[in-house]
């Protein structure tokens, strides 16, 4: 009888173990399947302002990016305008080689006439809306003088914004041989601009920070170029099915035999913008919607499975200890957030679960110190994981003192020095 009871107890324990193991497996599987399966060689989603990575797949492998390259061209053009080396109304005279390319069959373009001049503004518009290759090359030539010099400038600019492994051959993203008379010497005809998905996201975020009005162009479904009607390629514009309140307003498509179908998306909801990158999706035809289907899936995942938790300017972060003020009337002070920031987290994470982990603490704040004195840097965390960012510095939240601190009088400072001896 005792043996039977023991046997039943053992069986019950084994059953409980297997059940709990199965439950754990199902929980783990559930957390994995929460993430969408993106049918592309690489993909990433990031917060446009903070650089927080919200999804990634093979995001660090360099891949051909085709016309996505035009984002770098527009970034450089805008930098030139900011530096007053170029103006929106400056005229660009078209060379015979660029004019010939503008009418080449099989390439997206607007017709350009040799010897005729077009404004920088209109060429930028054609580059972004119609993905006009010749227009992009004309802008590159205007900025740098020659295709070789502009390719070097693209690589140099990439390094400046934190992109290390860029390959740039021209302003348009065409393969070297397809640029015709503008092709680079001693470079393979099949050479094509390459970036990783994370680097494309970094480029797009830099562009949008320095040139936020770019979406005024990229949200257009159609436009005109000196009387010629041009249409955009972004099939997600005016799509209200992604998720409630989500508005897509950019950014750029790219297509080639090597690159497949690529798309850099920009979407907002309640003042929060994300950037998505899909590289190497299916490309059966010019109207194949695969890249947009995958992008919509990625955007839907971010906006329905995650949420941004906002920390307002002047708010205290749980887990952030007080900073010391050795010569202050009070010997410590509470650091608070310098400016409003946020961290994306799974929907089941609350604001109360967000904590700070010191990256750098200003241990010795000198008194007197005004309210708002630098008190260090922290990184936001939550129990489910440590958020990742495009660049390390993006993860750092600046902290400042929450009040002014007067300097202690000499007698108090002397007394503290005596106490430290014992």
Based on CA atoms alone, the radius of gyration comes out at: 28 Å
- Which structural class do you get from the secondary structure elements? alpha+beta
Determine the fraction of residues in helical runs and give it as a percent range: 25-40%
**Overall pLDDT level:** 90
Task: State the low-pLDDT regions, or none.
Answer: 1-33
Outline type: elongated
The CATH homologous superfamily name of the largest domain equals: DD-peptidase/beta-lactamase superfamily
Q: What is the element string, with H for helices and E for strands?
A: HEEEHEHEHHHEHHEEEEEHEEEEEEEEH
Please count the helical segments: 10
SSE layout and pairing:
Layout: H1 2-33, E1 42-47, E2 53-57, E3 63-64, H2 70-82, E4 91-93, H3 96-101, E5 117-119, H4 120-129, H5 133-144, H6 147-160, E6 194-195, H7 197-210, H8 215-218, E7 222-225, E8 228-231, E9 247-256, E10 260-269, E11 272-281, H9 290-305, E12 306-311, E13 323-324, E14 332-333, E15 335-337, E16 341-346, E17 355-361, E18 374-381, E19 396-401, H10 410-420
Antiparallel strand pairs: 1-2, 1-11, 3-6, 4-5, 7-8, 9-10, 10-11, 12-16, 13-14, 15-19, 17-18, 18-19
Domain Peptidase S11 D-Ala-D-Ala carboxypeptidase A C-terminal: 311-406
Function: Removes C-terminal D-alanyl residues from sugar-peptide cell wall precursors.
Protein name: serine-type D-Ala-D-Ala carboxypeptidase
């Amino acid at each position: 009888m005792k043996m039977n009871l023991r046997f039943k107890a053992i069986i019950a324990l084994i059953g409980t173990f297997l059940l709990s193991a199965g439950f754990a497996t199902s929980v783990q599987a559930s957390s994995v399947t929460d993430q969408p399966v993106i049918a592309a060689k690489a993909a990433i989603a990031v917060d446009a302002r903070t650089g927080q990575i919200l999804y990634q797949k093979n995001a660090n492998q360099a891949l051909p990016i085709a016309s996505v390259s035009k984002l770098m061209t527009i970034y450089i053009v805008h930098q030139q305008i900011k530096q007053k080396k170029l103006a929106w109304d400056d005229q660009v005279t078209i060379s015979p080689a660029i004019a010939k390319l503008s009418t080449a069959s099989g390439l997206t373009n607007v017709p350009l006439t040799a010897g005729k001049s077009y404004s920088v503004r209109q060429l930028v518009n054609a580059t972004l809306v119609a993905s006009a290759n010749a227009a992009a090359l004309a802008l590159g030539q205007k900025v740098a003088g020659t295709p070789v010099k502009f390719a070097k400038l693209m690589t140099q600019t990439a390094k400046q914004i934190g992109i290390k492994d860029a390959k740039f051959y021209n302003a348009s993203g065409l393969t070297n041989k397809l640029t015709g008379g503008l092709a680079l010497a001693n470079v393979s005809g099949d050479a094509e601009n390459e970036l990783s998905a994370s680097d494309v996201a970094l480029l797009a975020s830099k562009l949008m920070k320095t040139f936020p009005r770019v979406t005024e162009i990229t949200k257009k479904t159609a436009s005109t170029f000196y009387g010629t009607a041009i249409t955009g390629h972004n099939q997600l514009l005016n799509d209200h099915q992604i998720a409630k309140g989500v508005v897509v307003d950019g950014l750029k498509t790219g297509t080639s035999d090597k690159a497949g179908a690529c798309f850099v998306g920009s979407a907002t909801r309640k003042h929060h913008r994300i950037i998505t990158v899909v590289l190497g999706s299916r490309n059966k035809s010019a109207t194949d919607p695969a890249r947009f289907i995958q992008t919509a899936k990625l955007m839907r995942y971010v906006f329905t499975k995650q949420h941004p938790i906002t920390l307002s300017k002047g708010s205290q972060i749980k887990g952030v200890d007080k900073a010391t003020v050795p010569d202050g009337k009070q010997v410590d002070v509470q650091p608070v957030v310098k400016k409003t920031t946020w961290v994306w987290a799974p929907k089941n994470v609350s604001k109360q679960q967000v904590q700070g982990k010191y990256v750098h603490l200003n241990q010795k704040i000198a008194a007197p110190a005004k309210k708002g004195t630098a008190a260090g840097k922290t990184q936001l965390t939550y129990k489910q994981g440590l958020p990742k960012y495009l660049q390390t510095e993006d993860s750092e939240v600046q902290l400042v003192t929450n009040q002014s601190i007067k300097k202690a009088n000499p007698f108090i400072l002397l007394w503290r020095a005596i106490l430290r001896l014992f």
